[in-house]
Each structure stands twice: as structure tokens, then as C-alpha cells.
Design a protein that fits this description.
The two termini are about 20 Å apart. Helix content is about 35%, strand content about 15%. The protein has helices spanning about 30-35, 50-65, 80-90, 105-110, 125-130, 155-165, 180-185, 200, 210-220, 240-245, 270-280, 305-315, and strands spanning about 5-10, 10-15, 15-20, 40-45, 70-75, 95-100, 115-120, 135-140, 145, 170-175, 195, 225, 235-240.
């Protein structure tokens, strides 16, 4: 059965798939444009970069595609509102935000007629986001890469949030690696779509250094661990020498802060510099955020092929309104 489209506010994506907005400079227009061109929602990671750079990348994306281009901006950023307004001025279609909860963002969305999508990990925040005017809610679970708001798996936290979020799309995120799992979340759990990030790092269009992608390809299950972050949330990442040193208690206190990017930062290391190091392929010093199931992915593919596989697999088993108590089986 054909997958439904995904309508968020005044925008409709033909394929109910959002590409995760990975910062810093992992999700750029180079990745977001082909995602949008394939019918999904392409997302530029807007955290930790200068507003002018973000605006330039948004304008570049909007000139290159008629598809939906969003930006993901962490509420934890000190210049959160500057980045939001700058993105709107540059012509972005949608704002996605998490790592904290902003009430004022919904007023901005209403003023500028920009859909606001909130990332949550609890029924309380999901219901509040809907009440305040969110155009959609993304449920992000512990399987996701990067900063985490819960230690609970997706299939545990999604149903109670689905129970309270009734009038807007609800998106499942965290650990989804193929179209069969996409159909499962939509069929059995009532998701209106999915968000995936790590799979798109392993795309030809993602413009991180090849060493970043090779680190993903080499990763085994035990190589993907939880670590600490100056943001104040746990993060899921590859166990590199830097992450291993953190786990062993090696002091990483930054001598000075060049970026002043976070509202609250414990300064036990500079996350901006560590994420930039990973983007450049520095296996010793980089912080390589990674989803829990990255080890299952063993190929670098064009974005178009990733979409083809997800859609083909999902539509081969998708049956709308299957019901939560009816098992979904997929080919091995």
C-alpha cells in the first residue's frame, strides 16, 4: 500500500520522512536539498554556526529545490532566537527545535506563519507543545544519536505520547534503519512519519570527511555508547579515544571558550570544537554522534537510493490502520 504524504502546517512532503538536522555542519544544504528533492523534508543543522553562515546555506537550499527545507536549532544555544529569526529571514520553510523547551517560539511561528516542530521525549511536553501551537511533534527516544532527553526506547515512549497528541502529526525518531521499521512505526504505533539521521551520514551527499563515514561503517554494537556533554544532557556517540578518555575521568576542561555558544555550559570540553573535529574526520579528538543502530548500516548510498529502499520496503508491508495489536512481519 502506498505511503501517505506528511502535512505539517501549510507544507506537505510527498514522503513521510524527515532527515535529522545534525550539527555542526553535518546536515547542510548539500544533504537537505536531495532529501527535499526526493519528497522528504530536508533539514539543515542550525546550531553552533554563525547566523550569516546559516542564512547563506538556507538561501542556497531554497534556490536549489522546491521541496521542503527546515532548520533544526537547539534551544540550548545562547543565540537561539537570533538563529530562528535569521532562518526565517533567509526563507526557511520550517523550524525544528529541541534540547530544551521554548514557549516563545510558538509566538514567533504564528507571527511569521512558520510551522514550529518540537522534539520531545515525554507525554507532558508533547501535550504542552500541541497546546501552545506546535505544527507537529517529533518523539525522539534513547536510540537516537546526539543529545538525548530520555533513557527509554522508542516503542515504549511513543504510545503514551500518541495517546495525548491528537490534532497534529506525530513523528517517530530514534534507531530506525530501514523501511520495514518505518512501516512498523506508522502501522502499529500510529506515527504519521519518521525522522532518521545516522542513515544520512552514510550518504554520498553528506559532506563530512570520509573518515567520519568510515568510522560509522567500522562501528560494532559495543562501539556506540553514552557520553557526557557540556549541554547538560547525555549524548550517544562512537567510542573514540576522546570519548573513552571522558569515560575514564580524564580532565578535559577547556582553558577558554572561543564560541560562547550555549546558554549553560559546564565547560568540561568545547562541544563545538569536538563536533567540528569529527566533521573533519579527526578520529582521535572528534565527538562522533551516532544513533544506537548505526552498526547495522554497512553501505554509503546516494540519498535517492536511501529513499528508494525505505519507500519500497515500507510500502511492501504498509497497511494503514492495521492496529497496534496486529503484528507486522517483514522479510529477514
Amino acid at each position: 500500500m502506498k505511503l501517505p504524504s506528511l502535512t505539517i502546517g501549510r507544507l506537505t512532503a510527498p514522503i513521510p520522512l524527515i532527515q535529522g538536522g545534525m550539527s555542526i555542519r553535518v546536515s547542510t544544504s548539500s544533504l537537505a536539498v536531495p532529501v527535499a528533492a526526493c519528497g522528504g523534508i530536508g533539514v539543515i543543522g542550525g546550531s553552533g554556526i554563525p547566523t550569516e553562515e546559516l542564512q547563506e546555506d538556507i538561501r542556497k537550499a531554497k534556490k536549489a529545490t522546491d521541496g521542503v527545507i527546515a532548520v533544526n536549532i537547539m534551544y540550548a544555544m545562547k543565540n537561539f532566537y537570533e538563529l530562528v529569526i535569521g532562518s526565517i529571514e533567509a526563507g526557511v520553510d520550517m523550524i525544528i527545535t529541541g534540547a530544551g523547551f521554548s514557549r516563545d517560539i510558538f509566538k514567533i511561528g504564528k507571527k511569521f506563519d512558520i510551522p514550529i516542530v518540537m522534539i520531545v521525549s515525554s507525554p507532558t511536553l508533547g501535550k504542552l507543545a500541541e497546546k501552545l501551537g506546535a505544527a507537529a511533534v517529533i518523539v525522539e527516544a534513547k536510540e537516537a544519536g546526539g543529545h538525548l532527553g530520555t533513557d527509554q526506547p522508542l516503542r515504549t515512549i511513543f504510545p503514551p505520547i500518541r495517546d495525548v497528541v491528537k490534532t497534529i502529526p506525530l513523528i517517530a525518531a530514534g534507531g530506525i534503519t530501514n523501511g520495514y521499521e518505518m512501516a512498523e512505526m506508522m502501522d502499529r504505533y500510529g506515527a504519521d512519519g519518521i525522522q532518521i539521521a545516522s542513515r544520512f551520514v552514510l550518504s554520498e551527499e553528506c559532506d563530512v570527511d570520509d573518515e567520519f563515514k568510515q568510522a560509522y561503517l567500522r562501528a560494532e554494537k559495543d562501539d556506540i555508547v553514552l557520553t557526557t556533554s557540556p549541554v547538560g544532557l547525555p549524548g550517544r556517540a562512537l567510542r573514540t579515544p576522546f570519548v573513552q578518555a571522558l569515560a575514564e575521568g580524564v580532565k578535559m576542561t577547556a582553558k577558554s571558550c572561543k564560541h560562547l555558544c550555549l546558554k549553560k555550559c559546564d565547560h568540561h570540553y568545547c562541544i563545538n570544537e569536538r563536533l567540528n573535529a569529527s566533521r573533519q574526520g579527526d578520529l582521535q579528538e572528534g565527538l562522533f554522534f551516532s544513533g544506537e543502530n548505526t552498526y547495522k548500516m554497512k553501505s554509503i548510498l546516494p540519498v535517492a537510493e536511501i529513499f528508494r529502499q525505505f519507500v519500497t520496503q515500507a510500502e511492501s508491508v504498509y497497511k494503514e490502520n492495521r492496529g497496534f495489536d496486529q503484528p507486522l512481519t517483514a522479510p529477514a
